[in-house]
Amino acid sequence: MSFGTGFKVAEPGIVVTNYYVIRNADDLYVFYRQNDKVEQVPMRIMWHDRDQDLAILRGLSDVPGEVLTLADIDESQLHKRD
What we know:
Layout (H helix, E strand, L loop, with lengths): L5 E5 L3 E4 L1 H4 L5 E7 L2 E13 L4 E6 L23
Antiparallel strand pairs: 1-2, 2-5, 3-4, 4-5
C-alpha cells in the first residue's frame, strides 16, 4: 500500500501525482473529505514516467474540487516551437 498527494489539473478528474505513489499499484483511489465523511474515487493510469517521477491519473467518475491552473497558456501554445 502506498499513499501520496496529487492535484486536479483538468475536468472531470485528471490528477497529477508522483510515479512512486502508483508504482506496483493494483488498485488506485483518490480520497477526499466531504461533509465530514471520507469519500473515494477509483482511478486509472493515463500516463507515467518513472525517470521524471510523474503520473497522470483519470477518475472513473468525477473528482470534486477546483482545477489547479499550472500556467496561464492555451493548450495550443504547448505545441508551438520557437
